[in-house]
Design brief:
The protein is of the alpha+beta class. It has a single domain, classed as Mago nashi protein. The chain has helices at 2-16, 72-84, 87-92, 134-150, 157-160, and strands at 34-41, 45-48, 53-57, 63-67, 110-118, 121-128. The chain starts with a helix and ends in a 10-residue tail after the last helix. Residues 1-17 form the signal peptide.
């Protein structure tokens, strides 16, 4: 009797302790999916689907904002990219120190602020490029810079019409 009772406690406890692979993002893009992502040094670049704008960091010349309309296909691809890397959970679980307190220093330091709307829920996430785990750091950078910035934003006519940045960060 005691063995059965202990087994039952362990079984229920294990299931309640989070043995779930449930994603924080639905498998299909919600109808209300919107986001604002600030990124780069001082997070001065911004893709904002709430206001249909893009802000570009011109470095020495400040910033410039333009209208930018993403297509339904663009939004679908972005959502799937976020879902693929489980961006909400990845950012929430990112560690900035190794097991012995060691840290990664990146200069200039890229900063990120993501406001995400999914099924009426809002998620406010932030991270920097000095995430300790290299795979996590690279996965987030690949998504933001290669997939989102280079793969979608830089191909838009609105982006191409913006002036070039002058100067650089050290």
């Amino acid at each position: 009797m005691i063995k059965k009772f202990l087994f039952l406690i362990l079984f229920i406890g294990g299931n309640l302790a989070g043995c779930s692979n449930e994603s924080s993002m639905p498998s299909e893009m919600p109808d209300d999916f919107q986001f604002s992502l600030k990124y780069g040094v001082q997070a001065l670049n911004e893709i904002d689907t709430f206001n249909h704008t893009y802000t570009k960091d011109l470095i020495m010349d400040g910033t410039i904002t333009t209208d930018l309309e993403l297509t339904k296909d663009n939004l679908q691809a972005i959502y799937q990219g976020m879902k693929e890397i489980e961006i909400v959970d990845t950012v929430k679980n990112a560690k900035y120190e190794g097991p012995f307190g060691e840290e990664v220093h990146v200069e200039p330091l890229g900063e990120y602020q993501l406001k995400l709307q999914l099924n009426g829920e809002k998620h406010n996430l932030s991270w920097t490029e000095n995430i300790y785990d290299e795979d996590t750091r690279n996965e987030l950078a690949e998504f933001v810079y290669r997939f989102l910035h280079e793969g979608i934003i830089m191909k838009k006519e609105e982006y191409k019409a913006l002036p070039q940045a002058s100067g650089g960060y050290e």
